[in-house]
Amino acid sequence: MSWFGVASYAVAGGVSAAVTAMLVAGHPGGRSATWITAACAVAAIWGFGNSTLLMLGGPFAGFVALDVLHGTVWAASILSWVAPAPARRRSKTLLVASSLLFGTWSIVAAVAETGTAGLPRLGALYPVISSQSIFLPLLGINLIGLLGIEQVFRNAREEQRNGLRFLCLAVGGIFVLNVFVYSQASLVGRLIPFAWQGRGFLNAAFAVLVLLGLKRLSEWERELFVSRQVAFYTASLVAVGTYLLLMGAAGYVIRAVGGQWGVALQLIFFVAALAILVYALFASNIRARAKVFLVKHFYRNKYDYRQEWLRLTSALSRTGDTKLLAASGLEGVAGILGSRHGSLWIVGEDGRYEQVAWLDESDRTDAIYDPIHPIVVFLTTRGWVIDSEEYRLEPDRYGNAFGDPADGLLPRDTIIVPLDCQGRLQGFIVLSKPPEVDALNFEDHDILKTAGRQVAVVLAQALAQEQLTATRQFEAVNKLVTFLMHDLKNVVAQQELVVANAQRFGHRKEFVDDAMTTIRAGVERMRRVLDQLRDAAQSEPSRSRCDASKIIMEVRSRCADREPVPDVKMPEGSLWVNIDREKLASVLTHVIRNAQDATPADGRISIDVENDEGQVWIAVRDTGNGMDAAFVRDRLFRPFVSTKGAKGMGIGAYQVRETVRAVGGDVEVESEVGRGTTFRIRLPAGTPRAAETDLPAAARGVAAQQGATTRHR
User: Fold this and answer.
1) What is the reported pTM?
2) Alpha-carbon distances of 371 from 374, 377, 402, rounded to whole Å
3) pLDDT 10s digits, 178-199
4) Is residue 605 over pLDDT 90?
5) Pairing relation of β-strands 353-358 and 368-369?
6) Closest of 363, 387, 12 to residue 177, by C-alpha
7) What gap in Å lies between CA 258 and CA 262, rounded to an integer?
8) pLDDT for 194-213, tens place per residue?
9) Which of 563, 553, 620 is nearest to 597 (CA)?
10) What is the rounded end-to-end Cα distance, in angstroms, of the chain?
């Protein structure tokens, strides 16, 4: 009795029995599925039967009968997958009948060759058979099986071949192994002991491949579930068994040809082989690669990539501005994991990342990420999808980029997806991790990163389109300025002509009348020019200082020609700010004029000034029509967007904010439809030059007197 053979066939029987149980539990129904399940069950009987006969020293005819049953059922099962057709049906019937004929022939030959007085025992394990009549029919059965596999794969449609490929390789491996064993036996007239005993381990490996191959077929996809952990450890055990089998065969050859050094060489070989096996079992990188290989090549993808791609593309195809596209992209990426909460952040002109879209109102925040924030730095340099739970368990994998997990720099149960466009971090998406989602694997990371890149490309195109549109609009303004300068040139030429003729004809009444008409036409023409320009042309803001209190009173006096006249409330003394006086006057004039346009004559406009820790706040409040929050957030400060229709050019508010930001300040707006608007202008406080310290009081008094006089007109 050979314990190697007993163990080999016992492993084959156990693995085949386990595979059969899984197939019965997930049976989808149908003739082909039934045949495959039956073949796996016969493989279990074959393995346990051979192991039992070896232990009990059973008759040789019993081994032959088990091999006939094993080969015939596998051949019939693979032929059941051939597409039904009259010609093919006849071919299948002929092949199955041939298998049965070969099997009967082989069994009868085995009984005949061992005599009729009783079946002899396997004393030396394998007797020398004087005739090949036993092995040739067994060889024929397995050749029929290989022919059936060729028929199945060749007649399958292109979309079916991906699923059938691994199944055909697994079953084909069984037939090829038997062809090798029985072809050698037919040539030499006896079985090769080591090959015949060791085929049980290889049949166990093929049984696992059959299971994984069936998992790739559409009819088994939902019904059959194979845990990746179970498949990995089963495949590992089978791989170890196959490795030991091959090493044993190699050791046998080394001992046979090594002469007097054969035993020593065999010992050295086994020690080296065992060292390689131990290293492979405990090397984490090899284990990780093996898992990835197993999942990628023996399992269907976790995601339906076609469906995910179509859904994301449909979401990003919605027309609208950048914010609408950002919201659509966020919904598309969140749908991959089924996240119900999340937000999308885009880099601004100042390099900081601001939130522009959110799934739920509770996700909205005013937080801003600077370029040096650890999350931004990590996404920029590494481009990974960040899993907060993975970081909590294995911070070393991320290089401890976010410090101690207990510090909470990464929100718990979140996934952060980079929006990378051509190596530039366009933004990122923060998603809540649903409770039903397990730890992310390579497939989750790949699809999230790919979806993030797609969203980043679309957003980058939208932003570029907006910038291009604004540039074209500014080009149109430049062209308009060119035409208007031509008009101004004509006006100047007319005025020069009047001046030149004044000395000669100034005493004539007709000349004076014509001159006044020319001047009046020029004034009207220049007024129209000024109305059209609306301060569209802006020079670089000056870095000089001015007294804000004086400028406020001057602008208030200038705007007192229209109702309602602004009321001013500000502290005593000077309020020096770091901005050019003309620019500040232009900013305040625009804001106050807009307030007057939006406020009825019986309404109220107030100017409140505060000096707060190096910052001067100027608040212009009105009780006018007001604006809705969406307009203030998305359109108020966009160039060429106006609430005045054709009368406004839509660059005033944009120019106000850019002018103030250029000196280190900012503009905040609060508005409510029907209740009014508040413009809060923040300017950096400055210090006066020595020669200016005594000027503001007198100037302020004169300005206040002028304002009061203007209001009483």
Assistant:
1) 0.40
2) 8, 7, 15
3) 888 887 777 766 777 777 777 8
4) yes
5) antiparallel
6) 12
7) 4
8) 777 778 888 887 887 787 77
9) 563
10) 126
